[in-house]
Write a structure and sequence with these properties.
51% of the residues lie in helices and 14% in strands. It is of the alpha/beta class and 170 residues long. Strands 2-3-1-4-5 form a five-stranded parallel β-sheet, with helices on both faces. α1 crosses α7 and α5 packs across α6. It is globular and about 45 Å long. The relative contact order is 0.22. It binds shikimate-3-phosphate. The site of shikimate-3-phosphate has 10 residues, from loops.
Length: 170
Amino acid sequence: MNVFLIGFMGSGKTTIGKKLANYLKYEFIDLDKFIEARSGMSIVDYFEAHGEDAFRELEREILQNTAFPENAIIATGGGAPCYKDNMEWMNNNGSVAYLFLSPKALASRLENSTADRPLIRNLKGEELVDFIAAKLKERETFYNQSKFVVSASDLTAERLAFYLNLRAEV
Ligand code: S3P
């Protein structure tokens, strides 16, 4: 069984994904890392060199053509579910969980993060909250097609495993 964790940047897909994989003894896969390994450059450099459209195509190609291990937790980039048929593909190839948080909570996490994210590089404060709110509105149509919709606030691996029906009780 494969689990795809989706959600906005800062929703904690990688952090909770690693914990969940550890708890379930599954493998953890970070799709962004696969993209960086394949392209030989960081996501920021890839965006700069080739633009967002090329990034989305590469992301889709890697998502849909990687032979993932049998039991894996796969954290996807925040934009992956919203491109072409990626959402449909994930729903057909595993359990998809959307980790949601409010724009304010996301902004606060992202402001405290050291990761370099091309889409929000120059944003902070109210501008960042507004950007997230607008982008989230566009993206939620896709995100909400997930089988599981889970609040990322104070989420533990044990509780997520329970919500995903992978463990009987918390
Ligand atoms: C993106 C999210 C990033 C990364 C890229 C684009 C997005 O991943 O794929 O910077 O469009 O939301 P995270 O969600 O893991 O930060």
